[in-house]
Amino acid sequence: MISMRDFVKSVYKRITEDETFRKLFEVPSVKKEIMDMIRAYVITILVQKYKIVTGGTYFDTPEQVAKKTETFKQKIVSLNEELNSI
Residue 46 belongs to what domain range? Predict the structure, then answer.
């Protein structure tokens, strides 16, 4: 699995350096706005990945819920650390 550091750096590089990307999408020029956009993008991915399933045949066990919740929190902390280091 790719580290949060490598993922955030690749997204940041794509947004700031890829001319084709910048032509296709409206990208803010202020660094804080870019960081906020990356944060929102990554959090959206994390929410989907660590979503807790509460019903149906494949519902999460209490152990899985605890693990998903803890992993999600760790990923958010890691995301914030990486964004602050750019």
Answer: 4-85
